[in-house]
Amino acid sequence: MNNEEINTKKSWRNSYTWVLLANAGYILIFYLLMKIFS
Amino acid sequence: MHGIDWIILIGSMLFIVVYGVWKTRGQSNVQDFLKGNDSSWFTVGLSVMATQASAITFLSTPGQAFHDGMGFVQFYFGLPVAMVIICLVFIPLYHKLNVYTAYEFLESRFDLKTRTLTAVLFLIQRGLSCGITIFAPSIILSAVLGWNLLWLNIIIGTLVIIYTVSGGTKAVNVTQKQQMAIMMGGMAVAFVILIFSLPDGITFSNALEIAGASGKMDILDFSFDFDNRYTIWSGIIGGTFLSLSYFGTDQSQVQRYLSGKSVKESQMGMIMNGFLKVPMQLFILLVGVMVFVFYQFNPSPLNFNPVATKSVENSAFGEFYQAIDNQRIENSKHKENLIFQFNNANESEKKILKKEIEKSGEIDKVYRSMAKVPIAFSNPEVELNDKDYVFIHFILNHLPKGVIGLLLAMALCAAMSSTSSELNALATTTTMDLYKRNNDGKPDAHYLKISKWFTLLWGILAILFACVANLFDNLIQLVNIIGSIFYGNILGIFLLAFFFKFVRANAVFMAAIITQIIVIIGWKFDWMPYLWLNLFGCALVILIAIMIQLMNKNNPSKPEEIESIGH
User: What is the pLDDT of residue B473?
Assistant: First the structure.
C-alpha cells in the first residue's frame, strides 16, 4: 500500500468519524431543545 | 385551485419530464442506461435522499408531528451508522466486482440459485410497493381535491415512465436534483409562511414553548418500553438494522450509489446522506409542529379527512358528531386563552399554566378519538387516522395562490422521484439477474432495448396495481407486511456473504428457503408484531445457514476469494 492510498484511507476514516460525531451532536442539540422547550 | 397554481403544478411536472428526456438523450449502450457511472458525490447523495423521500414523507410526516410530536426523528438515528458500514463494506466490493445489481454479487460469493432467489424476492416486494408509491399520494390528493383517482394514478405513472424509459439511471439522477429542489423549496416556503402567520406578540421561540407545553417537543425518549415504537434505543439499534437492509440490499438504493463515477464519489454521496438525513427529517417534523401551533390560533376540523367528515355529516350520526365538535371548539377557545396567558406569564405562572395547557390538550385528544366512533359507524371503510390529511388541509386552506401549486408539485415530485428509482431498479434486476443471465451473448443494443421494455412493463404494472389498490382493505399495511416477510431474509443472506466467509452456497440457499417458510408461518400465526419479522428473518437465516454448514463440513464449495464476474 503506497502513501497516497494510506492517506486516502485516513481521510475517509476521518469522514466516517465526523459523520458519527455530527449525528451525536444532533442528538445533544435535540436533548437541549427538549430541556429548554418541554 | 387558482390558475397560477395550475400553471406552477403542470409547468414543474412537464419541465422535469422534458429536462430528464433532453438531458439524457442519445444513450446507446446498456452500461450508460442502467448504471450511469458518471455521477458526482452530490448527485449520488441527492439521488439517495430523493429515492427515500416519497410523497408520504412530505404529506404524512408533518401530520405525525401534529398529533404525536417530534419523537419520530429517533427512527433515523441508526441511519448514519448504516451509512458508515455501507461505505466501508458494501460499496468497495460492489465497485470492485463491477456489478449492476446487489444480487449479482451473491452469484460470485455463493451461486446462481441464491442470486436468482434474492432477485425474485426483491422483484415481488418492490414491484408491489412501487404501485403503492403512486397510489398513496393519489388517494390523499383525490380525497381533498376531488380529482379522479384512476386518472391521477395514470398521470403520475405515465410521466415517470416517459423519462425513466427514455434516459434510465441518468434520467432518474438528473431529475431527482430538480425534484429535491422543489420538495425542499416547498417545505421551506411553507415554514416561512407559518412563522409569519403567528399572531402578534408570538415569536418563533414562543411557538416552540407553546409546542413544548403541549408535549410536541419531546424529541428523545430514553425509556426501554417495547410498546413505545420510537425510543432512542429502537432508533439506534432498529434504525441501523433497517437502514442497512434498505440501503445495502435494496436495488432501488444500491443502483443510486453504483451510479457514482468512483468508489470515493459513491462513498461521499452516502456520507452526505448521513450528515443531512436527520436534520432534514427534523425540519419536516418542525413544519408539522408549526402547523400544530398555527391551529392553536385558527379553527381546525375535528377530523382532517374530508371523506370521513362528509360521511359522518350525511349520516344519522351527524348530530352526535356535531355535538362532539362543539365541545371541542369550546375547549380550543379555552386553550387559546391559556396559551396567550402562558406567553405573557412569569416562570412560576408558566409552570401552572403548562399543566392547564397539557390538560386541555388531553381533552382535545379525547374529543378527536371520540369522533372516530360515529365516523366508523357511518362508513366502516373510511380511514380513521387523519394524520395524512393534516398538512394538505393546511396547504389548501391557508396558503396563498401560487404556493398551493408549489406544494402540490412537491407532493407529486416526491412520488415521481421514488417511483422512477423503483422502476429503474426493477428493470435492471429483471434484465441483468433474470434475462441476461439466461440469454447471454446478444449484442449490447439488444439488452438496451430489453431494459427499456422492462422499464415500461414494470411502469404499466405499477399503474395497474395502483388502480386496483383501492379495492383492498389496509393495502399499505399489507405491502409493509410483505416487505417485512422478505427483507430480513435478504439482509441475512447479504450479512452471511460479507461476514461469514466459511458459510457456502448450499447452506445459504437451504437456510433461505427454510427461513422464508418459517417467517411466513410466523406471520400467519401472529408470533410477533410484523415489523419484528425483519429481525427474526435475518437472525434465523444466519443461524440456520451456520448450523447447516457446520453439519456438512465436506460440502464442495466455491473458493473463499470472491471471483470477478463478467457481464
Answer: 59
The closest CB to that of A30, out of B215, B220, B275, belongs to B220
Task: Name the 3-class secondary structure at B39.
Answer: strand
Please, what is the average pLDDT of chain B? Answer: 89
The pLDDT tens digits of the residues spanning B276-300 come to 999 999 999 999 999 999 999 999 9
Which among B238, B325, B257, B245 has a CA at the least distance from the CA of B486? B245
With a cut of 70, which residues of chain A have pLDDT below it? Answer: 1-13
Domain range list for chain A: 1-38
Count residue pairs from A and B with Cβ separation < 8 A: 55
> What is the per-residue DSSP string for B62-114?
HHHHHHH-SGGGGGGTTHHHHHHHIIIIIHHHHHHHT-SSHHHHHHHHS-HHH
The verdict on B73 touching A (C-beta cutoff 8 Å) is yes
pTM value? 0.89
Question: CB contact, 8 Å: B399 with chain A?
Answer: no
Query: Which grid coordinates belong to B312?
Result: 359522518
* B544/B31 Cα distance (integer angstroms): 37
ipTM: 0.85
- A-chain CB neighbours of B217 within 8 Å are 33-34, 37-38
Across the interface, do A16 and B282 touch by the CB < 8 Å criterion? no
Asked if B254 and B101 count as a contact pair (C-beta separation under 8 A), the reply is yes
Q: Please classify residue B205 by burial: count the beta carbons closer than 10 Å to its beta carbon, then call 0-12 exposed, 13-18 middle and 19+ buried.
A: exposed
DSSP state of B400: P
Closest alpha carbon to B66 in B290, B259, B349 = B290
Give me the residues paired with residue B260 across strands: B39
Burial category of B556 from C-beta neighbours within 10 Å (exposed 0-12, middle 13-18, buried 19 and up) = exposed
For the stretch B28-69, pLDDT in tens is 788 888 888 788 999 999 999 999 998 888 988 999 999 989
- Mark yes or no for CB contact B220/A15 under 8 Å: no
Q: How far is CA B248 from the centre of its chain?
A: 16
**B260: helix, strand or coil:** strand
A2 Cα to chain B: minimum distance (Å): 17
- DSSP one-letter code for B440: -
